[in-house]
Amino acid sequence: MGKGEELTTTKYLIHAQINANGIVEKPDVVGAVFGQTEGLLSNDLDLRELQRTGRIGRIQVNIHSNSGRAKGEIIIPSSLDRVETAILAASLETINRVGPCEAEIQTLKVEDVRAVKREQVVNRAKEIYKNMVESVGPASMKMIEEVREAMRIHEISEYGDDRLPAGPSIHTSDAIIVVEGRSDVLNLLKYGIKNTVAVEGVSVPKSIGELSKKRTTTAFVDGDRGGELILKELLQIGDVDYITRAPQGKEVEDLEKDEVLIALRDKVPTTQFLANHNILSESNNSSNKRQGRHHNKRQQKYNKEPEIEDDEIILMKDMLKEFEGTGCGAILDEALNITKEVSIEDIYEEIKNIEGTANTVIFDGIISQRMVDVASQKGIKKLVAFKSNIVKKPHNLKIITME
User: Fold this and answer.
1) Residue 246 has what DSSP assignment?
2) Last residue of a domain, which of 310, 338, 368?
3) Which residues span the domain enclosing 234?
4) What residues contact 371, with CB distance under 8 A and at least 6 apart?
5) Taking the CA atoms of the chain, what radius of gyration do you get in angstroms?
6) Residue 238 pLDDT
């Protein structure tokens, strides 16, 4: 069996160092390895039998002599499992003579060949990907963007007689987001937010006003003067539950994903917003009327809690799908950036040892009561998984599942 053949089935390489008190040759070392381990272990781990059946490969010896002493390396390819390989590696250290000379053998390491191969695959994949990206010229990039845009446009829906641009969930979702224009709807669609509708102009259509009275409504407007004008119109004819704005001077259509998530996370009840902003001169009267309407609207919605909006749930579930079947999870900050990836086995300990700005834990598994209790203590805001098996939910923790 050649070296190339061995490495195709080899799982591990045993690396050992030999020091002999005299001059010895390669055949002496190989003979000592076979001869002095014979009968030491069970028949299943007899070196001659293992080599005969191909479960260990050809023993490689690199040895050189200097000043009447010999020093070298022994490499033994193994296709045994981890435990058997470790036992075999340890047995080499029982050898105390090679030929006529006293000798000492020390196992240096057991190398996982598959790990090396995986690293080679990853490095090569990075090279291939880099070449792919570099080979995409400006024309190709334009085509890619056109296709992406076409996909988003295909997904866009319409609402009402005015045929207003809207996300596909606008007809079924209990919570809606009102934005200014078609470009805003497209940008939010790109981030998986599908319960949007655009007013398309400063004059807010009556259909939006009527819809806002039936659904939990968030106004998401640009951070400029135009955003204030639309908000003023919307507050006069509609029933808005929450308000949020793009950062100062920015437009919703230009926001990156983290900016969108932060804006939606930081939405505030309309009464609170009006108390802090001089948008309407009649804000006090509007606030009082709005509070009464909000109470009726919540009653119509079967007392559904409005604090977890559909857009949050959609985003969380989309992220969760990426972990399905991986046996892994992740810890996220407030902007939903992954700060650490973890395995399911370690998820409880990771939550227990969390420090800093962790906001959400998402993982491919089942939420237990023990996990809920420790997450609540650590200030985690959301736990996201496929199922939950809990008795009591703390008030400061949101649980999102696929159930």
Assistant:
1) P
2) 310
3) 143-310
4) 347, 348, 351, 383
5) 33
6) 86
